[in-house]
């Protein structure tokens, strides 16, 4: 029986277990080969473990941090058997995640005094940004909250159309203009409409291109500045969506977007179709930005609030 606190419903936990299955199987297959025939955690085992973690997309810096912590435990305890390695790894990874993801299951909670709560969503094209917005809108609406979507990714007509499809599916209003319109103008109209409708949550999509970082930075800065003319200190949250299946490329995207704007939360998608789920550990640790949501399936319910205990429990579940 896991020592970690169980807060998910059995159905959601089962979805999480299944969603991390490829990552887990890949990791433990490599780990099994690394410790085969060895009974003691020594320098050779740690070198092999380092290789396993790096090749599982945990990232070099985070891997070195984990190895250093395990080395300290081995030095302290004098003898650590390879049969204890899983438990030690589990504790150290949970510890790392705890340093960034402090709050428990708070992803969908709206802070008091912030109505409407404004979320600006950023990320490159193809990471599941619009789908994440739709699924978030669904979950907020399910809580009885009034949600308004803003289609400020005016660079692509397909982005506006896709967000409209989600708005129709979820049954929430959308504010949009023509392709090529000023994104800041769309954001202004969205917030103004949200106030008129007494909305609880506003979710604004933004353009997902990185080919010119200066333009991206200028655009996002302008969108934020214009929003603040309607509601002070907005957006309340800047959510960066990353595709977990891209592995190390997700690190690079996180690096570029955190330079372009102040990212306050992360959503990591498409973990169910990849063996690269280790990116959740590395990105959370390296960027010190809370992972709020993870995508572990195609269904509308399969964007889950990230809980470090449940994630680690599923990751190490044998």
Question: Could you outline the blueprint of secondary structure elements for this entry?
Answer:
Elements: H1 10-19, H2 21-35, H3 43-55, H4 60-77, H5 85-100, E1 117-122, H6 129-142, E2 147-152, H7 157-170, E3 174-175, H8 183-196, E4 201-206, H9 213-230, E5 237-243, H10 248-260, E6 265-269, H11 279-287, E7 291-295, E8 303-305, H12 308-315
Parallel strand pairs: 1-4, 1-5, 2-3, 2-4, 5-6, 6-7
Antiparallel strand pairs: 7-8
Polypeptide structure, described:
This protein has helices at residues 10-19, 21-35, 43-55, 60-77, 85-100, 129-142, 157-170, 183-196, 213-230, 248-260, 279-287, 308-315, and strands at 117-122, 147-152, 174-175, 201-206, 237-243, 265-269, 291-295, 303-305. It is of the alpha/beta class and 318 residues long. It has two domains: 11-100, Up-down Bundle (Four Helix Bundle (Hemerythrin (Met), subunit A)), CATH 1.20.120.140; 117-307, P-loop containing nucleotide triphosphate hydrolases (Rossmann fold, 3-Layer(aba) Sandwich). Helix 10 links the parallel strand 5 (237-243) and strand 6. Belongs to the GTP-binding SRP family. FtsY subfamily. Part of the signal recognition particle protein translocation system, which is composed of SRP and FtsY. Its main location: membrane.
């Amino acid at each position: 029986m896991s020592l970690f606190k169980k807060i998910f419903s059995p159905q959601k936990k089962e979805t999480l277990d299944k969603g991390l299955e490829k990552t887990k199987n890949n990791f433990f297959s490599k780990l099994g080969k690394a410790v085969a025939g060895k009974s003691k955690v020594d320098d050779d085992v740690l070198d092999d473990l380092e290789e396993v973690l790096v090749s599982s997309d945990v990232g070099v810096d985070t891997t070195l941090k984990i190895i250093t912590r395990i080395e300290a435990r081995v030095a302290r305890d004098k003898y650590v058997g390879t049969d204890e390695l899983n438990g030690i790894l589990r504790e150290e990874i949970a510890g790392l995640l705890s340093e960034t993801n402090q709050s428990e299951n708070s992803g969908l909670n709206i802070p008091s005094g912030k109505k409407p709560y404004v979320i600006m969503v950023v990320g490159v094209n193809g990471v599941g940004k619009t789908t994440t917005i739709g699924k978030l809108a669904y979950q907020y609406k399910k809580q009885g909250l009034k949600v308004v979507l803003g289609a400020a990714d005016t660079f692509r007509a397909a982005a506006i159309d896709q967000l409209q499809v989600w708005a129709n599916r979820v049954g929430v209003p959308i504010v949009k203009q023509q392709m090529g319109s000023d994104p800041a103008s769309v954001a202004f109209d969205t917030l103004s409409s949200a106030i008129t409708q007494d909305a609880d949550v506003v979710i604004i999509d933004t353009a997902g291109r990185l080919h010119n970082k200066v333009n991206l930075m200028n655009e996002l800065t302008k969108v934020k500045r214009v929003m603040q003319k309607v509601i002070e200190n907005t957006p309340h949250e800047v959510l960066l969506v990353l595709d977990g299946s891209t592995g190390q490329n997700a690190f690079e995207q996180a690096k570029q977007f955190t330079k372009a704007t102040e990212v306050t939360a992360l959503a990591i998608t498409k973990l169910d179709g990849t063996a690269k789920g280790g990116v959740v550990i590395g990105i959370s640790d390296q960027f010190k930005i809370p992972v709020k949501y993870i995508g572990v399936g195609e269904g509308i319910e399969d964007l889950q609030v990230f809980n470090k205990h449940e994630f680690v429990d599923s990751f190490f579940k044998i």
